[in-house]
Amino acid sequence: MTAKTFYLETFGCQMNAHDSEKVVGTLLHQGYRQVDAPEAAELVLYNTCSIRDKAEQKVFNRLQQFKRQAGKGKVFGVLGCVAQQEGERIFEKAPHVSLVAGSASYTKLPEMLVQLEAGNRRVTGLSLDTEETFETPFTRRDNPHRAYITIIEGCDKSCAYCVVPFTRGPERSRAGAGVIEEARGLAAAGYTEIQLLGQNVNSYRDPSPTGWDFATLLARVGEIPGIRRVRFTTSHPRDFGKDIVDAIDANPVLCNHVHLPVQSGSSSVLQLMDRSYTRDEYLRRIEWLKKARRNIAITTDIIVGFPGETEADFRQTLDLLDEVEYDSLFSFKYSPRPNTAALAMGDQIPEAEKTLRLMILVEKQRAIQIRRNSELIGCVEEVLVEGRHEALGQWIGRTAQNRTLNFTGGGEALVGRYLPVRVTRAGPNSLVGEAVV
Ligand code: SAH
Ligand code: SF4
Ligand code: F3S
């Protein structure tokens, strides 16, 4: 019998990307073979994101595109956050879909595959009341040098704009010993960078009697021989403790970069968002980071046009950018999402106004990044070589602070190596340099 073929496309955040690595590994273990075009696959899977409306629409566009190929030995499945959010409604919206499963059900994937193979055309995995985390020894990682490890799944916060608590369920931390074991295994397999993942890594709490908190787990992962870089994402400011800064200061293996999403610079908007910190409390965390011995890069996420955001509120966000001088940021127009508290709030901001605010914010940040990146000209930074940009004749490198630093020189076949690069030019989003030999 020839192996069944599958195709998987992934949308959304790193947690989804890593879930897909686990799903792929599970399918391969079940005897499936991966193909790189949906046309060639018997099982077509989309691992979906629902964080903003645009992300959600993407999957329905995809499903529309291939609708006519359904039946004829082809089966479609929707995984991830849209699957969890929409549940069985997906079968109505896209009747050619046969599998709908959220991330809390992936441990049951093998059983669900058996049902699909038996010809069941309405297979679901939508339970959220699970204590389980999705751990599998079969993970098939995309990158041979950098590996993701999920340390905590779900989210117990209730930010007024956010679907994640509904799409990923309550928080579940993984046992610390399991995390360390996986990281050791990765080091032994030649991985040098570990990225610890969770929607709110700061509320990590080892469920075993050791009871490690996040800073302890981070420090332990940083001690594993062979691991040269440890990153983590995402930190919620409310739960971000000074012990994390101390851990970074104590061990250069822990990357000097913290992503600390602020969302807004206005305390009243933060309150409406139910973020559970004020601007001043947030700035206290920034102060810890700036007073650290190491030079820690700080990045953030911002939402513009949250319901009720006045021009004065927005100006406070712009002021915050000047005050913090972020190394980089992701900014988004508020997108109303199902089930969330903000959906019913009055004072929704018109689309045109959101667009305008986003443009102003992006422009301001661009100037800040040009300034900050220019300060690095002449400095030597260590990069992990990620690839080759043939058209530019450059190697692609990443610094510990998570900046892209492309460079020339340094010899051949460098991918996966670490080497010092002197910065010669700076743009708003990346640096260019020459390998120091
Ligand atoms: N757990 C992370 C965020 C995950 S979502 C945290 O708490 O920081 C990533 C980012 O998407 C958020 O930080 C937020 O800036 C943005 N986002 C989430 N919901 C959104 C919505 N409804 N509209 C616009 N942006 C949103
Ligand atoms: Fe969403 Fe807030 Fe949880 Fe982040 S902390 S995933 S923004 S609810
Ligand atoms: Fe999207 Fe789900 Fe991640 S909504 S951002 S894929 S947690």
- The strand order across the widest sheet is 2-1-3-4-5-6
What percentage of the residues does DSSP assign to strands (E)?
15-25%
Could you give a short account of the major beta sheet? 6 strands, parallel
Number of helices: 13
What ions, cofactors and ligands are bound?
A: S-adenosyl-L-homocysteine, iron/sulfur cluster, FE3-S4 cluster
Q: Let me know the average pLDDT.
A: 95
Number of domains: 3
Structural class computed from helices and strand pairing: alpha/beta
N-to-C CA distance: 54 Å
Question: Could you describe the 3D structure shown?
Answer:
By secondary structure, the chain is α/β, with parallel strands linked by helices. It folds into 3 domains: 5-125, Methylthiotransferase, N-terminal domain (Rossmann fold); 146-374, tm_1862 like domain (pyruvate-formate lyase- activating enzyme); 380-435, Nucleic acid-binding proteins (OB fold (Dihydrolipoamide Acetyltransferase, E2P)). The protein is 33% helix and 22% strand. It has 13 helices and 19 strands. The chain has helices spanning 14-29, 53-65, 80-86, 89-93, 109-117, 164-168, 176-188, 214-222, 242-250, 267-273, 279-290, 311-324, 351-374, and strands at 5-10, 33-34, 43-48, 75-79, 97-101, 123-125, 146-150, 152-153, 172-173, 193-197, 229-233, 257-259, 297-304, 328-333, 380-389, 394-399, 405-408, 418-426, 431-435. The strands form 5 sheets. The chain has a 6-stranded parallel sheet with strand order 2-1-3-4-5-6, sandwiched between helices. A 5-stranded mixed sheet has the order 16-15-18-19-17. α5 links the parallel β5 and β6. The chain is globular and about 60 Å long. The protein starts with a strand and ends with a strand. Bound molecules: S-adenosyl-L-homocysteine (SAH), iron/sulfur cluster and FE3-S4 cluster (F3S). Iron/sulfur cluster is lined by residues 155, 157, 159, 162, 164-165, 199-200, 236. S-adenosyl-L-homocysteine is lined by residues 51-52, 161-162, 164, 199-200, 234, 236, 261, 263, 301, 303, 332, 334-335, 337.
